[in-house]
Write a structure and sequence with these properties.
Blueprint lengths: L1 E10 L2 E6 L8 E4 L6 E12 L8 H13 L4 E12 H5 L15 E4 L2 H8 L6 E7 L6 E5 H7 L1 E4 L6 H14 L3 E6 L19 E5 L9 H7 L7 H14 L5 H13 L13 H28 L19 E5 L5 H23 L11 E5 L2 H4 L7 H12 L5 E7 L7 H4 L4 E4 L5 H10 L5 H6 L7 E6 L6 E5 L14 H25 L1
Parallel strand pairs: 9-14, 9-15, 10-12, 10-13, 11-12, 13-14
Antiparallel strand pairs: 1-2, 1-6, 2-5, 3-4, 3-6, 4-5, 7-8, 7-17, 15-16, 16-17
Bound molecules: adenosine-5'-triphosphate (ATP) and magnesium ion.
Length: about 525
């Protein structure tokens, strides 16, 4: 079916057409060039009416509507289309653009579904269905799993638009292939996650509480995660001195307190030999006072953090499993602890992959793995040197050779470090309204044109624009709703919750009345 005629050609890849009817954004069309048929993507779609323009009063508007209704020539639908490549080249998976501009008068028509299937739903095993084409829902939209594991992925959108749902779809596809993923779950979004394959068999999901043990920390790191302020240098010195001696102990917290009490009382083994004289005596008194204050801080940290800083654990990474979807629950961590914990898990997983590549069999992750970092703007932040940013930057650059894919998930892409973002080989962008966030993606991925970035605000929940190495060409998709019926990530209805609690209170009070009568 003819959809329109080319009327204006600005350059070899951008054309303007007069359409028969309004065309939806993101629709794929054929450009019927004589030399080579091309595939095009609708990028903007406008409608106009000469009868209903330049109107200055309501009566005139009403009359113009009638004029416009009777005229077959009044309405116009102007559409811009970006040429993606010749149909033949796309079928072969190597998109090639035409070398000459399209001639005005060329017809635009619907594209055959068989061609769309070849391009968007390849049959080979590395391609996985994650949803369907947005404007042609009969066609499966597939992504190349190998590409995200070897060249990383960013999943970006404003809050509540379906990022975690997409991660879940990816986890399902990786799990179906007996693959390995680690999801660092800072907000307990995946606490209830269960996954099933097409035969309704359970996929291995390994729920683990993220932990830190003193053994894996430096003295500096320990001081940071128990909230010793940077200004308390002398307290930190005492802490580090003791820490280095007892970090391996299973009764770490008891030993730490006991050692501090000794220093506070002036009998600590780690106290420097006191030189005679009043200055040395004053120094000793200061040290004892500092140890006393430090003891209070340590006692508080032990009360608050002993569930996440656990000296009994040999090696926190030992609870991760190969050929599983590992959910690392980090809800109990504060931001600093999460940063240090996450960097530890990233680094040890990366070291495993490196050792495995060197032929070492004594590792957990013998095969490639996919590591998802939720809330990436918190841990890989522009302008702040976090531990995670350092190791994530390294992995983003080097892990390709070792089979470790990073997945950066964020609702504030403009706050994610550009160096790391620019290493991402693929992008899944869902609805995004903020101009600054749109610009940050537009600046990072050359396949997202300014026009496309502008349209990200008109996407609905679960609709995504996929670009980069994991698709053959930029693709607009509706992602499967994997989290349906699990209450996953859905907004809490305050009014529902309140009405339930009113009913509960009423029940209790009537029970109270019965109790009273019984008395
Ligand atoms: N593909 C989809 N189709 C239909 N509904 C979806 C889809 N993806 C997500 N939703 C719905 O949108 C809601 C939010 O999804 P999700 O938790 O994945 O968003 P998010 O982008 O991760 O949010 P946040 O930034 O707050 O973490 C969920 O209730 C989910 O059911
Ligand atoms: Mg989420």
């Amino acid at each position: 079916m003819i959809l329109g005629i080319v009327k204006d050609v600005t350059d070899p890849i951008n054309i303007k057409i007069q359409a028969k009817e309004p065309l939806p954004l993101g629709k794929y069309v054929t450009i019927e060039r004589d030399d080579d048929k091309c595939l095009g993507l609708v990028e903007t779609s406008l409608s106009s009416s000469s009868a209903i323009s330049n109107i200055t009063n309501f009566q005139e508007a009403l009359e113009s509507v009638e004029v416009s209704k009777d005229s077959t020539r009044d309405k116009g639908f102007e559409t811009t289309i970006r040429i993606i490549g010749t149909v033949e080249s796309l079928k072969n998976g190597r998109p090639t653009l035409p070398s000459t501009p399209t001639i005005p008068g060329t017809k635009i028509s619907d594209i055959e579904h068989d061609i769309l299937r070849i391009i968007f739903s390849p049959d080979s095993s590395e391609w996985s269905r994650i949803g369907n084409l947005l404007r042609t829902d009969e066609i499966d939209a597939k992504i190349n799993i190998d590409e995200i594991v070897s060249r990383h992925l960013a999943i970006l959108s404003m809050t509540g638009m379906g990022k975690s749902n997409f991660v879940t779809v990816l986890a399902r596809e990786i799990g179906k292939r007996n693959g390995t993923a680690i999801i660092f779950d800072y907000h307990n979004d995946y606490g209830q996650l269960e996954l099933f394959n097409e035969e309704n068999e359970k996929i291995n999901v390994n729920h683990v509480d993220a932990k830190i043990t003193p053994r894996i920390l430096s003295g500096d790191q320990f001081a940071q995660i128990i909230d010793i302020p940077k200004s308390a240098i002398h307290q930190a010195d005492i802490l580090i001195e003791i820490f280095e001696q007892i970090r391996e102990e299973t009764n770490f917290w008891e030993r730490l307190e006991a050692e501090l009490i000794l220093v506070r009382d002036g009998i600590g083994a780690v106290a420097p030999a006191a030189a005679p004289g009043p200055a040395a005596a004053a120094e000793q008194r200061d040290r004892q006072r500092r140890a006393g204050r430090l003891l209070t801080r340590v006692q508080r940290a032990r009360r608050l953090y002993s569930n996440v800083i656990d000296p009994l654990i040999e090696n926190p990474r030992d609870s991760l499993r190969q050929n599983s979807i590992n959910i690392l629950n980090a809800t109990n961590f504060n931001e600093k602890q999460a940063d240090i914990g996450l960097s530890y898990y990233l680094e040890t997983a990366f070291n495993d992959r490196k050792n495995s590549a060197l032929g070492n069999r004594d590792v957990i992750f013998q095969d490639p793995l996919f590591f998802v970092i939720e809330e990436a703007h918190t841990f890989i932040k522009v302008g702040s040197e976090t531990e995670t940013k350092f190791i994530a930057g390294k992995i983003a650059k080097e892990a390709r050779k070792f089979g470790m894919g990073l997945c950066i998930v964020s609702q504030r892409p403009s706050k994610v470090d550009e160096d790391v973002l620019s290493q991402m080989g693929s992008f899944a962008v869902l609805k995004m309204i903020q101009k600054r966030d749109q610009d940050s993606i537009f600046n990072t991925s050359e396949e997202i044109t300014e026009k496309m970035a502008g349209h990200l605000s008109s996407l609905n929940v679960g609709e995504a624009f996929l670009t980069g190495r994991f698709v053959k060409i930029p693709t607009l998709v509706k992602i499967d709703e994997e989290t349906k019926s699990k209450g996953f990530g859905s907004d809490i209805s305050a009014t529902n919750a309140w009405s339930k609690s009113v009913k509960m209170t009423k029940k209790e009070s009537s029970q109270e009345l019965i109790d009273k009568e019984d008395l």
